[in-house]
Amino acid sequence: GAVVSQHPSRVICKSGTSVKIECRSLDFQATTMFWYRQFPKKSLMLMATSNEGSKATYEQGVEKDKFLINHASLTLSTLTVTSAHPEDSSFYICSARTTAGVADTQYFGPGTRLTVL
Amino acid sequence: AQTVTQSQPEMSVQEAETVTLSCTYDTSENNYYLFWYKQPPSRQMILVIRQEAYKQQNATENRFSVNFQKAAKSFSLKISDSQLGDTAMYFCAFMKRAGNQFYFGTGTSLTVIP
Q1: Residue partners of A71: CB distance under 8 A and separation at least 6
Q2: Which residues lie closer than 8 Å to B99 by C-beta, 6 or more apart?
Q3: In this structure, what DSSP letter does residue B28 have?
Q4: Most exposed: A69, A71, A85, A93, by fewest CB within 10 Å?
Q5: What digits encode the pLDDT tens for the residues A54-73?
Q6: Cα angle value A6/B6/B34 (rounded, 5°)
Q7: Which residues pair with residue B55 across a beta bridge?
Q8: Set of chain B residues whose Cβ sits within 8 Å of the Cβ of A106
Q9: Beta strands A112-116 and A10-13: pairing type?
């Protein structure tokens, strides 16, 4: 099946610093990737849709200047949390949509736990 | 707008028994996909099963099967011969065929009791 990786899996940073999270599709090309945020025991909340070669589309209420998304290639999207604050602590999950294999399906990365001190 | 409802926050089942998780959705679309994802304690989201709305036949994957009732907008997941490894959070999801976005339900926490 399609594999999506995320790096790092866990990060702890100080308030005010920036953190970059990478999402890679390992065995397929993904023109579209998605970034989600998940609070404990809650569902996934879509933050933004990342399109290769164009600007990301952000969901209502998500600050695009705080959560910078870059989809530089067909296998890599990055999420940068700028000037992180404790309220940004959360579990961030990316997914990639594939049109190969099981078409029109999203495969998820293993997630990144961000803790801002 | 699309909404997905999972009315059972928590469920439990005895090992080797069968359990059914419910999911209803609301949409005006005619062409769409429905999914069940599993999120074990590792928090890795794993695709369990997928249904295309234009297909009347219910999807099955080994011990997992769905009961898709398009008119009733219902998409329940049946897990047969439950195993301890089935303990996880289960999310129902909807995606328009012509769209990108997933709409997730709030999840059902399933515990398989030995």
Answers
A1: A33, A50, A51, A52, A53, A54, A56, A77, A78
A2: none
A3: S
A4: A85
A5: 889 999 999 999 999 998 88
A6: 65
A7: none
A8: 95, 102
A9: parallel
pLDDT, one tens digit per residue, over B40-54 is 999 999 999 999 999
Q: Quote the tokens at residue A61.
A: 């209420």
From A91, A97, A105, residue closest to B47, measured CB to CB:
A105
Nearest chain B residue to A3 by CA: give it. Answer: B46
Cβ–Cβ < 8 Å for B27, B46:
no
Alpha helices, H only, chain A = none
Question: What is the identity of the amino acid at B91?
Answer: F
Interface A-B: count of C-beta contacts within 8 A: 51
**pLDDT value at B68 more than 70:** yes
Interface of A with B in 86-105 (CB under 8 A): 91, 93, 95, 97, 102, 104-105
The pLDDT score that the predictor gives to residue B100 is: 73
Q: Is the peptide bond before B41 cis (omega within 30 degrees of 0)?
A: no
DSSP-assigned letters across all residues of B63-103 = TEEEEEETTTTEEEEEE-S--GGG-EEEEEEEEETT---EE
